[in-house]
Amino acid sequence: MKYQRILLKLSGEALMGNRTYGIDPERIDDYAKEIKKVFDKGIEIGIVIGGGNIFRGVAGASKGMDRVQGDYMGMLATVINGLALQNALENNKVPTRLQTAIKIEAIAEPFIKRKATRHLEKGRVVIFGSGTGNPFFTTDSAAVLRAIEINADVILKGTRVDGIYNEDPEKNDKATKFESLSFDEVLKKGLKVMDTTAFTLSQENKLPIIVFDINTTGNLMKVVEGQNIGTRVD
Question: What is the pLDDT at residue 17?
Answer without folding.
Answer: 87
